[in-house]
Amino acid sequence: MFKYSIRMAVAISLIAVMLVGCGSKASNKSSDASASQSASSQESNSAPVSADKKEMVTLKFFHWYNDDQDKWNDVYKAFQEKYPYIKVESVTAGDNNSQEYLKKLDLAAASGDQIDLMMFSAPQYYAQRAAINMLEPLDDYIAKDGYKVADDYYSDPAINGKTYGLPAKKVSFFVLLNKNHLDEAGLTVPKEWTWDEYLEYAKKLTKGEGTNKRYGTYFHSWSNYTQLAQGFQMDDYYLLKPDGKTLNVETPLMKKSLEIRHQAEFVDKSATPFSEIVSQKLNYRPQYFSEKASMIVTGDFLIPETGGTDKVPANFKTAFAPLPTVNKGDPQTTTNASDLLSVYSKSKHKEEAYLFARWYTTEGIQLQGKYIPSYKKADIAKVIDNQLASAKTPEMVDKESLLYVMQNQIPQNFVVPVSYYDQADQAFLKEMDLFLLGKEDVDTALKNAAAKIQEVVNSNSK
Fold it and tell me: What pLDDT does residue 50 have?
């Protein structure tokens, strides 16, 4: 879903890391975590640790978020209040560009800069760096704290039995709907529906012609919007099977995915044409909030914005619906994506870095009030209240439908794909672009995409 030049730059920086640190192996054992406290008891024991008994430690935390906008400064302050001997220094461009961030992270590692903590927006980026021994195994710390990742979090990012990071936010997808447009069309907020019914809604919500046309829906240019029927299944939702070698492209669900797009854009003309998205460089946020599209499939990262911000006020009420299913009666599944927080294998403060990672992914992320945690014990209703508290007009959010979606959709089983999955995804996306521009039919697009992905698998299996 991202440009090839960005991927190449990341690959080059990864090679630089490997050349500088090829002699370093991830076999460095975690030292006795005498300074770390049991994270399971952190929530019940909030007493600060005296700085007098500990040597002051400064952790360098690499990420891409904006510290002010995304309330990370509140996180650092709360952590240091509890652990006065640990200071967290943020290393971020603050531009929320998780792709550019990866290049900067890899170059910092190649240059020997201090890195203690790093975050990844997708499991394949995490897997790539685990493969070159950038990440510290956390299993000894986890065992000492007495919990299991799979029990405490919705995502279990283990690779070959080793855990190199803890899940932070959980990204669930759902459908945002302009409630005013629904009322105008005499439509109700769905609690369960199929993709065929979604297409019917899109037709009924489409209005006008030419530059004033309002589309019923909008599908962004990312790869997952060409995998709507398959990509939200409980299992086998990637383009490759879990073994990383068997293709999962020419399937009935992938064919259905492309048929959804073709029906909406070419037949019903109820979705913004892909040609316009590319030529005009359209983005999902303004398309929805400026009422150019009545429905969008998106993630829970947009929840705070539905209540309005200083820059983009909420001029209409937003309702929420679960993702459509392929067939009536199918489980209401959703994505189970997650930011992953890892400790650098060359950090001189691994114990303290792990302590922050565990604290943030359990307590800190809830205090932050910005994201839905992957932590299973989090109070989701309270987190949503915190999110909406920062909205300018929270009454413009249909909270009842939001809570229903967040409490009833089932997260798909989390899988860490092979480290070269991005290459397969990019090969697939190039072929999908041709399909969405009307240059290939469904079967040809899938056949050609499968052939390109097979080349990727072959080149990485030598």
Answer: 54
